[in-house]
Design brief:
Layout lengths: L1 H9 L4 H18 L4 H14 L3 H13 L4
């Protein structure tokens, strides 16, 4: 966590601070909906991985889109 705060300190754009705030409060909302920490971590990991592997974004989008019919 110290390394991340160091990155936020050095980020002149403030973008990392915004991302940290959003992740924090979205994770809090998920917890209130009884989503487990491992589930939150899995979604974040998929999002992070999609930066290197666009196929991961397609897989996640497909998974979400498949829920529309329910």
């Amino acid at each position: 966590m110290d390394d991340f705060f160091e990155k936020m300190t050095n980020d002149e754009s403030g973008k990392l601070k915004d991302i940290a705030r959003q992740l924090f409060f979205l994770a809090q909302e998920a917890a209130k909906l009884e989503v487990g920490i491992n589930e939150v971590a899995s979604v974040c990991t998929m999002g992070w991985s999609s930066a290197e592997s666009p196929e991961m974004e397609h897989v996640f989008t497909y998974m979400l889109d498949s829920l529309k019919n329910r």
